[in-house]
Amino acid sequence: MNIYIISTLINFSASLFLGFFIFFSNKKERVNVSFSLFSFNVAFWSLGYYFWQISNNSYWALFWSRFLMAGAIFIPLTYLYFVYCFTGLLNRRKKFLIFSFFILFIFFILNFSSLFVNRVEPLLNFKFWPIAGPAFSTFLFIWFFYVIYSTYILYKKYIVAEGIFRIQIIYILVGMVVGFIGGSTNYFLWYKIPIPPIANILVAFYVVAVAYAIIKHHLMNIKVIATELFAALLILITFIQIFQTSIYSIVIRMVVFVITTTFAFLLIRSVLLEVHRREEMERLAKELQKTTKKLAAANKELQRLDEAKSEFLSIASHQLRTPLTVIKGYISMIQEGSFGQVPKLIGQSLEKVYISTERLIGLVESLLNISRIESGRLEFDIKPFDLAETVKVIVDDFQSKAKVKNLKLEFHSEPNLPSVSADPQKIKEVISNLIDNSIKYTTKGSIMVGLHQESQSVVFACQDTGIGILPEDLPRLFNKFTRGKGMMQVYTEGTGLGLYFARMVLENMGGRIWAESAGKGKGSKFAFSLPLSDKSKARKIK
Ligand code: ADP
Fold first, then answer.
1. Ligand 1 atom at shortest distance from the alpha carbon of 478
2. Fold of domain 3-219
3. Cα–Cα distance measured from residue 480 to residue 229, given in angstroms and rounded to the nearest whole number
4. Could you report the per-residue pLDDT of 31-51, keeping only the tens digit for each?
């Protein structure tokens, strides 16, 4: 067996293998199919080449020469087809491709006559080298034209391509150029130029380049792992072995030995890695289970504590409220003179005690409300009512308080507002708290209270010219026991419960509450919306 037989067997098996591999990796992709077609074409040519080399009479040598040329004729066509698919030009160049097929088909027909391959005769070391017929030069010209043209298209695409696509093109480009140059060394002897097909083996280079691009850069959307490739190589070499009978088989067996050893090593390593990974996963899963259990227990404990806290708050408030009411009652009776005349000085002190007791009762009431609302015990008596009327009454009540601070308190309502659906008593508390806050946190200027309709709700707004709210405080104000920064200095008796209660109440009635302020010293606006009781009164937003 000579070097040419070996090289052609390598070309054949590498192309055949790559063709199948790419085809079965993704049969649905046209790029893959076209590339497989090209590879099979090269394999066909190599097969003819092999049998021509081992022919021992001129009849068969001529037959196999024509067989290999049948393959060679279509190589540029399948190459062009692949390039068109790969670069996305196929649809635009379909006609040219069909035209090219017919051109090359003419030579396929001529291949049955002596016009193409004329005869075989001994040349250099070859016993039966084919000699060109009169049509062969034209064919060669066309053959080279197509190969160069297709390569040029690939190159043009390479220039404009970017990223991974650009890298993929360069591999194909280099593989094809080297492969075609190698294959072209077959043509010198046809014209008796004494250069043997020394580089025939280079044809397989395109297989190497494309395989490398598949592994490294996922060419044609194929992802392979090293073991797969080794397995593939093993199959390939075992296949070549079928044709081996001489000294070369020792070399081949050695290669097989090396590959098998590497393959076995890789396989064992990957199995070990897999086992290790699984163990690690199991350990992590166990840890996760433990942590989840701990978390669930902690969560339960937190819930229990929260309930205990609410319970405590509720009991403490109840216990506080009764004695406080008694104290308040007795103070009133003393002030009214039920137990005899009260001296002026004592009367003045009693007045202060009375005010403080009332504040304490208010605080206890707030705490009770919160604990009721949090435990779901606060009941809502939701019914349709006229919000405008309610607000008017409350604003009137606050006029005297505003006057004391020299503040203008005004109320404007859109006429004929539809009624809302809510608990009137609770809403009164919310509105009173909002207006009270505005008076508390405003030193000069005015407080504007307004009502208007917005599609499916009525919106209440209380706008003041007071101390305003810092942007960082805005989102927190509606939380429990939360007050704005530095509020302790402005108003010492605040608890930070009023807005929390308001939010709870509104959320329970399908409403919403929010605050707006341009910043410190720029006034604030507190607003809430309540759903209409009669949905048919809803208004379209312009
Ligand atoms: P309190 O007024 O008792 O502190 P609230 O829950 O009613 O409790 O209010 C919480 C905080 O919201 C107040 O401490 C204050 O910082 C801020 N705030 C409420 N209303 C106004 C307002 N009209 N102008 C500026 N800040 C306000």
1. 6
2. Rhopdopsin 7-helix transmembrane proteins (1.20.1070)
3. 66
4. 889 999 999 999 999 999 999
